[in-house]
Predict the structure.
Amino acid sequence: MPPFCSLTDEESEAAGRDCMEHVRRGGDGPLVPAASVVAAGEKGEVRAALLVVLKPPGYRDDPWRWDSWRNTSAPDPAVDAGKAQAHLDWVFVSPWYAGNGVASSLLARSAIALRDFGHASLTSSFMLGNGESMAWHWRNGFELLPNPASMRNFQRRLREAGAHP
């Protein structure tokens, strides 16, 4: 699936590992370890992973704030859920296990951990044109909202502010 669909199996696996390491380093915001889960096989091979990070409150409504917590520490999700928005950053599933409910099971486990921390919502995003991801999000109860950082929304905000014809 996008963005790895044109890669060989080896390239896709390496790209997935690179993405997971980027998230672990805080590249997309502080990782929430208790809500980030991995499904591993008997030999320790990763079958699926779901990574949750924290974003600043209100980042969905302000396209300029979406990455303002990159590589920074943030409130502890167990202590101060009101100062952060839980965000489903990546979902990886091995092609051998796709379509068997692994990602949905990981999401359910993650949602329990987030609820225990006091989070009332979980945001997510996916690449335009990734119909499989859109359907998975819809099946799992996510509400499809317009991207606040899209050019169309940006131009609308400028018009509403009187700054653009």
